[in-house]
Amino acid sequence: MAATEHQHEQALKKFLDERPELRAELDTLNPLLAQAKGETTAQYRDERLHEAFEAEAERLGLFAWELTLQLTAATPEDYQAQRMEVHKEVAEMAGMDWLEYCELYGLGQ
């Protein structure tokens, strides 16, 4: 089961709450930059937040959905179970053998 939109929004909130410097940066974005992109200030801010979130996931060697699960799971065990469930879904959708998929992505089954 992939992370839901609600989970992702919770993860973004927690991510931002843990990074006051990022919050300050996002709160002081130049509105002219948003206007130049044809976006509202809120849309431009949200886009920058998502970029920072994805960059952090990449820095940690995770997919963004994995970081979402990590930030919203009740326990590390819950995170691991949800993470493996999503990976299994992806492997099935890709028509890949589970063991081959695990080897490709360095997952311990």
Automatic annotation (TrEMBL):
Origin superkingdom: Bacteria
InterPro entries (alphabetical): DUF6388
Name recorded for this polypeptide: DNA repair protein
